[in-house]
Automatic annotation (TrEMBL):
Keywords tagged on the record: Coiled coil
A GO molecular-function descriptor: DNA binding
Domain Transposase IS110-like N-terminal: start-end pairs: 4-165
Gene Ontology biological process: DNA transposition
Cross-referenced InterPro entries: Transp_IS110-like_N (IPR002525), Transpos_IS110 (IPR047650)
Parts forming coiled coils: 243-270
Origin superkingdom: Bacteria
Annotated protein name in UniProt: Transposase
Cross-referenced PANTHER family: PUTATIVE TRANSPOSASE FOR IS117-RELATED, TRANSPOSASE FOR INSERTION SEQUENCE ELEMENT IS1111A
Length: 322
């Protein structure tokens, strides 16, 4: 067996090769990219000999990530790659010194020794298909974009509370197209009070609002024209400038979230396991895509049902539905 510690940075990798007894066999700093990967294969080949390709499964590599072209190249070469959680690495580092100080060379040694002594406790990077990896990319991006919209909406809400509380009464949801359109058109109390019913009805219709449009428009106009405590005119105008920017950002996020949703549904619909995932109660295309993305489709990832349940208990399912 050959154990490799790979302490990665953006432009290089500090590598240490170790045998089963813990003896250092080689150490090097390799550049990120094809040249660095070729040099790593050469270092491993020097230790394994002419049968390096046939004995690649005897190479165990510890690295603090499970993403990126470098990791994919390691997996493609047939090596066993263990993605070490940075918190695990931090705790393990304390075995080598009370300070827990981090250095690239020392971390490469620590990672090599960690996979030598504790590889049975570490989970190898799953061999998910490219289709599952694509679903993970778009579903996580879609979820992150929704989180980002929520953060911007909260900033908008706080700003309106400071100078324009009537808007919070007029619009139940600040991320809807009609609310964003009207706030962009009239971002301060004075201009909002001048909005006509026709302007409000037009915005509601463009947003494809259902129900009694006239009644809704009347309630919005009444709320915007009601008396509220406010700020001096110059301060309100300053806030209005920030509100126009915030509504523009939210409108863009709405558009991109819709685009990403289509991509999630498309990628998920093409996966052969989609029908199985959707057969579970409560799962639609978006939530189903997230579940598939987080659990993966590597049939050898979980040794049994209990292992999969343990993974679920440790947050994979909550990550999917968040």
């Amino acid at each position: 067996m050959l154990f490799v510690g790979d302490d990665w940075a953006e432009d290089h990798h500090d590598i240490e090769l170790m045998d089963a007894s813990g003896r250092r066999l080689a150490r090097a700093r390799l550049p990120e990219g094809v040249a660095g990967m070729a040099r790593l294969h050469a270092l491993i080949g020097e230790q394994l000999g002419e049968d390096a390709d046939e004995t690649a499964e005897q190479v165990v590599i510890g690295i603090e990530t499970d993403k990126g072209p470098w990791v994919q190249a390691l997996i493609a070469a047939g090596y066993r790659v263990c993605a070490v959680n940075p918190l695990q690495a931090s705790r393990y580092r304390e075995r080598y010194g009370m300070s827990g100080a981090k250095s690239d060379g020392a971390d490469a040694h620590m990672l090599a020794d960690m996979v030598r002594t504790d590889s049975h406790q570490l989970r190898p990077v799953a061999g998910d298909s490219a289709e599952a990896a694509a679903i993970k990319v778009v579903s996580r991006a879609h979820k992150s974009m929704i989180w980002e919209r929520t953060r911007h909406m909260q900033r908008l809400r706080h700003a309106l509370r400071d100078y324009f509380p009537a808007a919070l009464e007029a619009f139940e949801e600040l991320t809807t197209p009609d609310a964003l359109e009207l706030l962009a058109k009239a971002p301060d109390p004075a201009s909002a009070a001048k909005l006509t019913l026709t302007q409000i009805r037009t915005a509601l219709k463009r947003a494809r609002r259902r129900g009694d449009i006239d009644t809704k428009a009347g309630k919005i106009q009444a709320a915007l024209r009601a008396e509220h405590l406010g700020q001096p005119a110059v301060v309100a105008q300053a806030y209005a400038t920030t509100i126009r920017a915030a509504t523009a950002v939210l409108a863009t996020l709405n558009e991109q979230i819709k685009t990403l949703q289509g991509q999630v549904e498309q990628h998920f619909g093409q996966h052969p396991d989609a029908e199985i995932v959707l057969s579970q109660p409560g799962l639609g295309p978006i939530l189903g895509a997230r579940v598939l993305a987080e659990f993966g489709d590597d049939q050898h990832r979980y040794t049994d049902a209990r292992a999969r349940k343990n993974c679920e208990d440790h947050g994979v399912s909550s990550q999917a539905v968040a």
